[in-house]
TrEMBL record:
Catalyzes the conversion of dethiobiotin (DTB) to biotin by the insertion of a sulfur atom into dethiobiotin via a radical-based mechanism. It comes from Rhodanobacter spathiphylli B39. Residues 41-268 form the Radical SAM core domain. It catalyses: (4R,5S)-dethiobiotin + (sulfur carrier)-SH + 2 reduced [2Fe-2S]-[ferredoxin] + 2 S-adenosyl-L-methionine = (sulfur carrier)-H + biotin + 2 5'-deoxyadenosine + 2 L-methionine + 2 oxidized [2Fe-2S]-[ferredoxin]. Pathway: Cofactor biosynthesis; biotin biosynthesis; biotin from 7,8-diaminononanoate: step 2/2. This is Biotin synthase.
Amino acid sequence: MAETVLRHDWSRAEVSALFALPFNELLHRAHTVHREHHDPNAVQVSTLLSIKTGGCPEDCAYCPQAARYDTGVAAQKLMDVDDVLERARAARAAGASRFCMGAAWRGPKDRDIPKVAAIVRAVKDLGLETCATLGLLGDGHAQQLKDAGLDYYNHNIDTAPEFYGEIIHTREYQDRLVTLEQVRDAGLKTCCGGIVGMGETREQRAGLLQALANLPEHPQSVPINQLVPVPGTPLGDAEPLDPFEFVRAIAVARILMPLSIVRLSAGRQQMDDAVQALCFFAGAGSIFYGEKLLTTGNPDVEADRALFRRLDLHPMDVVESAGTVHADIGEGESCGQGCGCSAAA
Ligand code: SF4
């Protein structure tokens, strides 16, 4: 097999041209890339737990955990280690290979890190891969989490750089990139993706995927979320995205970042089984398992098991490396939207 060349210089025109391909042509190309590097019948399964819910000072327009929006999400303190462990054991018993923990913070304070590190250590000792999404990291935080046994850090760039200011006003796009750099420098694997269906144009969806693909390293895990409109948030009345446009986004992500695991993330509950099957064909190789994504709904475990049976899919085992043929990777994330923050991804 020819060596795969990973590109980090995609132009917007190139990415837009992929989006504009006839649907069947795009899916054929994406599936061909997927088969070259991944087992097309294996899906990495993660479970996501909100370890600190609500009360977030940020203003992400999609997020029910922002304190400023009246969404009925009650603020809770950071969970105790034992309570998290109980949930992690249940996730492992249900077949999850990775346990993702989200906290609704702008970012952790120095005093929070030892508490989160203790949680990470305990979950890792169960034999699960670990992922955390805690928001913007401060100096030394990524290394401390790595030392505690963290495998992945989730931090999404959310949307195209030019659309970011329409969605979030309390931090800059560049802040995201700085945290991602800290995560890479600490030797953690990155989980980084975004949300579609927030009123952006197709060109802006192309911009999101272009920005992800042109990061210094492709994220090992790329969650593509479909907005779950939550009443009380500024995007509570957002128009639903055409499901085929969502499938196109999965396919383009697959082509741009061939070794990454593309995760079908938030919004699955709103998709019918046929759309999910198209997403798997287009290159999605990971899902969240469990009835809740932080604070928004997710298909229940039995429904997912039935879907796997009908599609002859099987869950991946825990593995460490991304990008080898038939390898399994995974990743983690946050807020019910996969936003990349702390409680949303
Ligand atoms: S997405 Fe994360 S950072 Fe944004 S408001 Fe929600 S919890 Fe806070």
